[in-house]
Amino acid sequence: MQRLKILSFVIITVVTLSAIVSATAFALPEVLDEKKEQAAQNFIGESGTLDLAKLNMKKFECTASTSEGHIEKGKPLGLFHIHFTGCSGLSGMSCTGEGDKEKEILILGTFHIIYDKLASEGSLGAAILFLIPRFHFTCSLLGAKVLMLIQGEVLCLIKPINTFAKHLEVVCEAGKEKGDPGETTYWNDKSEAIDVKNGLLGEENTGEFEMMSLVGSGLILTEVNVEIMA
Question: 39: buried, middle or exposed (CB in 10 Å: 19+, 13-18, 0-12)?
C-alpha cells in the first residue's frame, strides 16, 4: 500500500512538473515593472539613419525618427507610431508621406514582443515584430514622381533582456542580399518556429510587391524600469 502511495505521488509530481514546463514553454516574453507586475507602459523612442531597400532598387533613406507607443497591461503587444524625417531616395528625390510635411513620413501600426534567437549570442532572446498596415509615400524631383506602397511585417531584435532597464535598443538587421531582412524567424506562444515569409513588401509603380528590408537601430525609453523576461 505504501509503495502504491509513493508511486501515486511520483506520478502526480511528474504530471505537475510537466504542466509547469509546458506552461513555461508555451508562454511569451513578459514585460515586467519593478513590482514584477505586467503593468501597462507608455514609451517614446528615437533613431538615427534608417535604410529601406528592395531588390533591384536604390534604397530610400530617412536621417532620423521619433516614435511613441503603448504596451498593453498583461500582454507583450501594443500600438506604435513612428515619425520619420529627412527622407529621400532615388537619385536625391524628396520622399513625403500622404498629408505629411516635406521629407517626413508617419507610420502607424501594432507590435508583438516574441522569442527570437540572438545571432551574436546563439541563445534564445526577444524580438519585436512590427505589423505595418498598407501606407504610401511619394518621392519627387524636378517634376518626376514615384509612388511607393508599403505593407507587411518587420522583425527586429530587442535588448537587454532579463534585466531591468529604462532604455531598450531595437535593432533591425539586413540580410545577405539587398532587400533581404536579417531576422526572418520567431517563436510563437506554442513554441512553434514561425517564418516571416513575406516580411515587409514594397511596390514601386510596378503593380507587383517585392520583399524589402528596413535596416537601422533605435532606442526606446519607458516610463519606469522594465524587464523583458525571456
Answer: middle
Global model pTM greater than 0.90: no
What CA–CA distance (Å, rounded) separates 225 from 205? 45
Give the model confidence (pLDDT) of 127-179 as tens digits. 999 999 999 999 998 888 889 999 999 999 999 999 999 999 999 998 888 78
Is residue 98 a contact partner of residue 78, using CB atoms and an 8 Å limit? Answer: no
Domain contains 10: no
User: CB neighbours (10 Å) of residue 66?
Assistant: 14
Domain count, the chain: 1
Is 23 within the bounds of a domain?
Answer: no
- Determine the Cα–Cα distance for residues 1 and 148; give it in Å rounded to an integer: 76
